[in-house]
Amino acid sequence: CEDCGRSLIGECKLHGPLIRAKDRVIPSRARLTLPHYLTLRVLELRAGNQQILGVFAKRVIQKRTQFGPYVGQLSTKLTRYDESRLVLQVLKDGGKYFLDTPDEDCGNWMMFVRLARNQEEQTLVAYQHCGEVYFTTVKPIEPHTELKVWYAADYAKFMEASAVFIKEESDVCPLPAVTAKEPIEPWICSTCRNAFATFALLESHQCINKDRV
């Protein structure tokens, strides 16, 4: 204690405890790489304060948007396995290696993307290109939608996994039938009057109408 001029085990009984200042918490490397239009959400809190995270869109993300490459450590075996995440491997110098992410400081935000359980919830496809793994959107992603991934057909063969196929979405759809129980309001372009199933499709279409420019 600088006031007493004595060395004490524990707190000074006369002058009390020291005022402790904590260091600022620095986000991990993986969290710092998250694009500004994506956000992490805690989906579940497990034993030991373990957080199950998901990556969500904050604005519309267009189809054919590419993310990557996936950052991880090349390893002959996985040190961290999570049943909700994809297992990724790459071919390097004739050898097959895992992209391992034992902690958040050796990977990027793509390590938080959860796998798609079915065709309906899949928004991303994973594939290998030039020894790197990339994720690309297979359809427009609406705000507040979670990004979920599965293997591309060729990459699924490489990973010895089954492939999930995504139906191609038509840019323009016919006006849906309106029922008394559940009226469906299409998104209609004010210029060309084409109808779209979602706002993302309306926003991304190229409207060319010379008469009404």
From TrEMBL:
<keyword id="KW-0804">Transcription</keyword>
<dbReference type="InterPro" id="IPR050331">
    <property type="entry name" value="Zinc_finger"/>
</dbReference>
<protein>
    <submittedName>
        <fullName>PRD15 protein</fullName>
    </submittedName>
</protein>
<dbReference type="InterPro" id="IPR046341">
    <property type="entry name" value="SET_dom_sf"/>
</dbReference>
<feature type="domain" description="SET">
    <location>
        <begin position="38"/>
        <end position="152"/>
    </location>
</feature>
<dbReference type="GO" id="GO:0010468">
    <property type="term" value="P:regulation of gene expression"/>
</dbReference>
<dbReference type="Pfam" id="PF21549">
    <property type="entry name" value="PRDM2_PR"/>
</dbReference>
<dbReference type="InterPro" id="IPR001214">
    <property type="entry name" value="SET_dom"/>
</dbReference>
<dbReference type="GO" id="GO:0005634">
    <property type="term" value="C:nucleus"/>
</dbReference>
<keyword id="KW-0805">Transcription regulation</keyword>
